[in-house]
Amino acid sequence: MKVTVVEYDPNWKTDYLKEEQAINEILQEELVKSYHIGSTSVPNLKAKPIIDILLVVNDIGELDNYSAQFENLGYEVMGEFGIKGRRYFRKGGDDRTHQIHAFQYDYIQEIERHLSFRDYLCENPKICKEYGDLKSKLADQYPTDIESYGDGKDDFVKKIEKEALKWHWTIR
After folding, report:
1. SS (H, E, C) the chain
2. Contact 160, 121 (CB under 8 A)
3. What is the pLDDT of residue 59?
4. Number of neighbouring beta carbons within 10 Å of residue 15
5. Fewer CB under 10 Å: which end of the chain, C or N?
6. Is 97 exposed, middle or buried (0-12, 13-18, 19+ CB in 10 A)?
7. Are 55 and 34 in contact (CB under 8 A)?
8. What's the pTM?
């Protein structure tokens, strides 16, 4: 998989909304809320052009009953994929366009982690730019090595996640 980081594209929001509508039609009452997360949800942040979607659902086990419908939308159903209590779906194969991270409504730690990180970057342009520059540098350094790209971001992301969670509780 080629690692490509591009400038922010305002069309990402529209891409998210289109996918959100299709997901709403599938899940209906099972869906509590859908969120656009990840780098494509943060204005002016450089990103891999992959729309990240966070689904909050009533019962994570029930989501398994919708596998065929997600496959009909072009998603690969990946199960927990390394995070207990999550359901993960990805679309586009090696040229991934979307990925879904789904959690049950009471899995607060993972839900808050994603939302706080997004919101913190939106509120802190300097940190947002620093993160975008790091991602560009890593993509240039590891154009065909997604694992090294991810490892290169790991310390920065963990540091910012901690700051974001603390910040989240100060604004409430």
Report:
1. CCCCCECCCCHHHHHHHHHHHHHHHHHHHHEEEEEEECHHHCCCCCECCCEEEEEEECCHHHHHHHHHHHHHCCEEECCCCCCCCEEEEEECHHHCCEEEEEEECCCHHHHHHHHHHHHHHHHCHHHHHHHHHHHHHHHHHCCCCHHHHHHHHHHHHHHHHHHHHHHHHHCC
2. yes
3. 98
4. 16
5. C
6. middle
7. yes
8. 0.95
